[in-house]
């Protein structure tokens, strides 16, 4: 399993699964590769911005124009 951070902020993740759990961070545009998570009966993943003051994910758009859109993705593969 992979956790892909396509946000503009470092990502904190926490996982729980039968018999264990893990946590850590994934840098901007980074990929966390977790082969030990493959073939589990269940896996829960929680994510938030990393850092002591980050309570929400944010995107900064330096200049907007008509038709622009904001996208943020955290991908679980």
Q: Which properties best describe this structure?
A:
42% strand, 3-stranded antiparallel beta sheet, 77 residues, mainly beta
Tell me briefly what this model is:
With 77 residues, this protein is mainly β. It has strands at residues 2-6, 11-17, 20-26, 31-33, 44-49, 73-76.
Report what the structure shows.
- The protein is 0% helix and 42% strand.
- It has 77 residues and is an all-beta fold.
- It has one domain.
- The strands form 2 sheets. Strands 4-1-6 form a 3-stranded antiparallel beta sheet, with no helix packed on it. A 3-stranded antiparallel beta sheet has the order 3-2-5, with no helix packed on it.
- A hairpin with a 2-residue loop joins β2 (11-17) and β3.
- The radius of gyration is 15 Å and the shape is elongated.
- The model has no long low-confidence stretch (mean pLDDT 83).
- Count of strand segments: 6
Strand content: 35-45%
H/E series, N to C?
A: EEEEEE
What's the number of helices?
0
Largest beta sheet: what is the strand line-up?
Answer: 4-1-6
Number of domains: 1
Structural class based on helices, strands and sheet pairing: mainly beta
Distance between the termini: 6 Å
The biggest beta sheet reads: 3 strands, antiparallel
Q: Spans with pLDDT under 50 lasting ≥5 residues?
A: none
What is the share of helical residues? under 10%
| Structural shape | elongated
């Amino acid at each position: 399993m992979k956790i892909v951070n396509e946000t503009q902020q470092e990502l904190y993740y926490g996982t729980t699964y039968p018999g264990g759990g893990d946590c850590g961070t994934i840098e901007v545009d980074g990929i966390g590769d977790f082969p030990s998570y493959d073939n589990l009966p269940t896996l829960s993943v929680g994510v938030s911005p990393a850092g002591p003051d980050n309570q929400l994910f944010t995107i900064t758009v330096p200049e907007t124009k008509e038709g622009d859109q904001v996208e943020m993705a955290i991908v679980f593969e």
